[in-house]
């Protein structure tokens, strides 16, 4: 270090510090460029010592400027040199060209500043000459990176771009890098150490390129460090001569580190695998640099590659010997009674696969040695024991051997296809992958495609795999197999059964007559899923309908159409395809067709009309008649008399279907009535075949709702009303028949004597028991038959609740029918059941009113004579208390008093029901409570109902409903309530009620207007007619 007693200028101090750092004798630069630059700085240090000894205390401006310039550039150079000194060698290689350029610029700049200093040293010729010489040298620095360093620099920059590299290129990169680092490529520890140093250097770097280079080199060095196992596996050979022969060192390619297949010699006398060295040359050219020999680093003048024939022959002989050894050992191991360890089997299978793939000419040796059969037998006999991993390895070996045609034939004979299909549902994805690849290999052959399709479950599994997008690779392979199979005619039916209908549909739509018939026959006998039925209907319905016009194609087309018609959603598609005119022509007009053709046609129609939909508006014949037209209905009824049994069932189903449609039911009922069709239907109620009876009962049930009187007249004439009761009570009958019989009986308008004599009072007890049993056994989800049975049983009890016969009334009291009806309202019922239960309460309440009137007008009978009053009120109490509703004494167990039976609240709750018919029935039942003729009795009843909340609820309902039957019924109650002065006075301030009455007066029917007028008069909102009090003038109205 330079020292001087007096203090030099700041610039000189800076120069001295930089020189001290650069010229530190402890520093030994690995790189040539920093060593040469440090030589310049050592020279500069000597010049600076001479300058400071001979200089004055003050410097001229030019000297100060030059010193400041030298100090700045020298400081910059010191920073660059610190990179060479402190960073890892690989880091320096990554930046070698920028670092070299930086020192080059600093050297030239310092040379320029020294030239300026020289011009100021006029009085010191010796110092001036030293400065001049140093200036000249530093202006012409010879800083250049070596060729090898430049190659490594370019390679690393490409790695920083994330480019993919092959194993051969990676090996060449390692060789170049090792030469640049001054180490041997085989020094794995040294290379790994340099990678660790590089990791420390880039740990805090923000450069994406540097991080990519680090990741790439780390991976390359790791791969390079792994030596391939080329000494053979220890397969426990019996004899020493069977041991695998390791390769000689010169058999190994320096780039691939594997035994060479096509060795070539370069002008550097180094031998490489042809493909590996060609790839390296290609990479060199792409990088814009001269191709080199990876081992020596020599730049090649020629890219000529001469085959190393002698070495290739030696390698071939070595390979042949080892293949024979491996085949022999494989046969030995797989032929043993008990299989060796899983690891040993896996190595054997890997070796066989490698031989087959890398040496295709040796496949015949594997085949002739029986290894293919041994592998197949292993899969057959030990599939569950060897596990998914080994099964995938076995399939991989078979897949490779399938490229040999003779081996492929052997595999087919031994059942490889079945084994592969079994592995399609293997546990591991690898097993499934190789299984589907094996099938793909075999699917190149048409006969193999047929064999694959014939295997149980194969197409289903392949179709499922093709649709599984979670594994797109397997999905694409499976789809390719299926596409190949679709080209084979014999696979069409099997593919359709697996849900792939397009091959069948394509042949159906584009094939000739014979092909169409074959495809149609397949559709007719197949069991289709709902989605399959819809797909076929959308694409093939019109073709199938068109085939109906050709006698030879008619029956298979009908079978297919029947299959499609079993899906409700297909009805619209079939109707749009004009199927109805073609079918009705066959059923109703074409007398030359066979009976089974008519049966199929009628069955298709019945399926189409089984649900309301598009068919109601579609033409059903060539004349444009609708299905529910009079012509069609009459023809169907006429057909019942001479059609075959199966056709009769289908016709009954058609009539039931169109009668069930809300749009068509009224017209169908009228046409059946006008054509006296009831007579044609009734005989089927006792047909010997159950299908006929059930269809007839269902149709009769629908007609009983529309043609009750006509139906009961027909049943009376044919004496078939008892038949309905017999069916109901017959436990041997089906649930459908019994429930339909109950429903029909409930709907028939029977005379009182028919209720008593035909139904019989004993039926009440049976019905009550049956109703309770159904309620106890019913779950949350009730079948239609059960629901209809309950509704029918309630309807049957209505017949008895309406009767005025004393004996029947006694039975009503005995079996507590009012309690039964009230209980039904506590269950989750449909609207029809609620309505019937409410009507039952209404009828019983009306009977109670009539019985009370009789008792009130007659003297008290002697004990035992007034049976009708005893069953109503029970035993006489010691202190009779009159009922506020009936004004007579009603016992607590009375079945004719809604108040005593606690039925008023359930009826009030029904007023909030969503179904208007239920609300109407509830209002009618409640009206029976206020229909008393006397003002005193009316007041007592209204007061009682006021306390129970009935009045306000009914008035609220009246104010909210629109004009119609419900309003007409509600105003009856309102009118009766407002006849009581105290209540009229209280409600007179209810403007909502007043407005509702005014609207009813304006827009209601004649009776409603009259009751609205009376109500308004009672509210003092309207003057009474003729000056008379409205209450007295209208007192007897109901």
From TrEMBL:
InterPro entries: ARM-like (IPR011989), ARM-type_fold (IPR016024), Armadillo (IPR000225), RING-Ubox_PUB (IPR045210), U-box_domain_protein (IPR052608), Ubox_domain (IPR003613), Znf_RING/FYVE/PHD (IPR013083). Gene3D superfamilies: Leucine-rich Repeat Variant, Zinc/RING finger domain, C3HC4 (zinc finger). SUPFAM superfamilies: ARM repeat, RING/U-box. One of its GO terms (biological process) is protein ubiquitination. Residues 246-325 form the U-box domain. GO terms for molecular function: ubiquitin protein ligase activity. Its EC number is 2.3.2.27. It comes from the Eukaryota. Keywords: Transferase. SMART domains: ARM, Ubox. PANTHER family: RING-TYPE E3 UBIQUITIN TRANSFERASE. This is RING-type E3 ubiquitin transferase.
